[in-house]
Specification:
This protein is an alpha+beta fold. The chain has one domain: Sufe protein. Chain: A (Alpha-Beta Complex). The protein is built from five helices and four strands, in the order H-E-E-E-H-H-H-H-E. Helix 1 crosses helix 2, helix 2 runs parallel beside helix 5 and helix 3 packs antiparallel against helix 5. Bound molecules: zinc ion. Zinc ion binds next to helix 2. Zinc ion (ZN) binds next to helix 2.
Length: about 150
Amino acid sequence: MSALRELYQEVILDHNKSPRNFRRMEDASQTTEGNNPLCGDHYTVYLKVEGDVIRDISFEGAGCAISKASASLMSGVVKGKTRADAVALFEQFHKLVTGEFTSVAQLNGLGKLAAFAGVSDYPARVKCAILAWHTLRAALESRKEPVTTE
Ligand code: ZN
């Protein structure tokens, strides 16, 4: 498991250093802010939704490595997905970071998101990992008020 953990660590460091889809979107169909006051993470998630499909997603903001890498990976994974698929992925990711997944097969189904499996050992970091996803879900529901993990 330690080689796997190192690989996971690498994925998180890479996405923290070079976050994907890290930009403001001027013509977003939905913009939602998310805050994790416990750690000081704050991000804005921009969506361009056409019909039922997330055509484009981007984010900007600042926070710890876990929160930024999570937002970066999320943006890559949900782009091109339907709203329902994105919400289903959120539920899977939530199970992952809260330690509800126990088998390697379940981890494999999540692709690079599995990099966050180790977060379940650190309850204080779960909110960091989940912040972008909460914000995404609120954006998909067209909620206007900022999201907070508290
Ligand atoms: Zn954080």
